[in-house]
Amino acid sequence: MKPITAIACGLALAAAAFFSCTKDTVTETYTFYRPVFETSDAARNGIKSAAPQPVTNPGKLAIKGHYLYLTELGKGVHIIDYSNPRTPKNIAFVAVPGNADVAVRGNYLYADCYTALAVIDITTPESVKLQNFVNRVFPDRFSGLASDTGKVIIKWEKVDTTISRRFSESFDKTQDGRVIVYNDMVAYSSNSAGSGGGVTNSKGGSMARFALVDDRMYAVGLSDLKVFNTVDPAAPFYVKTAQVGTGIETIFPFKNNLFIGSQTGMFIYNIDSKDNPALKGTFTHARSCDPVVADDTHAYVTLRSGTVCAGNTNQLDVLDVTSVTSPSLIKTYLMSNPHGLAKEGGLLFICDGAAGLKIYDAAKPEDIKPLGTLKDIFAYDIIPLNGVALLSAKDAFYFVDYTNAANPVILSQLSITK
């Protein structure tokens, strides 16, 4: 494999294209992001506690006990004590370069560090210690980087390039294999289904790519599902990979099944055999971004437009999954621009983008009814927990009292600094 020297963001971002006076020549300006490499040893040394930092670019979230673990995309994980949701405290920051996803098992935080998995002892949140570093387990995070066994990327340098060519000629954006076209460099996309051996697992949002179930962690890549053995939380190890499909985005565990959302549909994998996930059922939908949550009888899928997933659909699909081998659509509800969602008992929570957080009575999935709305926020993802919801939004991270679902109330918020 030829070395990678740059990554083109978006579809090379043809920011300026126009004909010159010769009519057969085109000039185009592209924005590239060139990776800056560091040795794995140096990256490991950079994983450590830091003083609390402002939240500037929040990503995935996981909760365990009275702690919230919130990723700062590409940089690390905020640890927030919300034992009193009216006065949450940002107590520490764990620097993890290239981080996007997070899960917690026992006293150990699992975070991706570009193509590696970092295992961090968080017994004392203000003074964490790197416990293990599992190399090259997420190769598709940046195509081709798995071949470089001794290095990881620590940052990206922006490079603007202008080229002129004859209109009849094509421009090789891959630069003969040395440049990778990557459509969504920073928009990376755990939910607990129990724990194993008396060790408790974190619970996560619907946008997660990590899922802890008993003493296994399942992680989805762009097209696959990886299994990690976490019997010893301090020393998880890679077990195997199963190919799923293309455009995989999210994973949601419920009991002995994994519900995997993709840009073209939902996959249901059974994990009665922990190390051998078995495909049981699929449901195909129009191309769209697709997080999914489920309960014993139904799965709830949001589809939205305006993303790299393409499509122009904004809706909630409710599926009957009584038979996981043949999931079927029972009802579609129109939405504004739905993102993450959650189910707790008879309540369904939908983060409907600029339309806010919406709460529904879903006791009858074929006839869900609106209960309450939290307006004037751009809602992204949510974890409800016994009357208090942890809500990730565009402008802030909110703690919401929904004990009266018809009138959700913001208890407090952590501002996002831009």
TrEMBL record:
Keywords: Signal. Pfam families: LVIVD. Residues 1-22 form the signal peptide. PROSITE patterns: PROKAR_LIPOPROTEIN. This is LVIVD repeat-containing protein. The keyword Signal applies. It comes from the Bacteria.
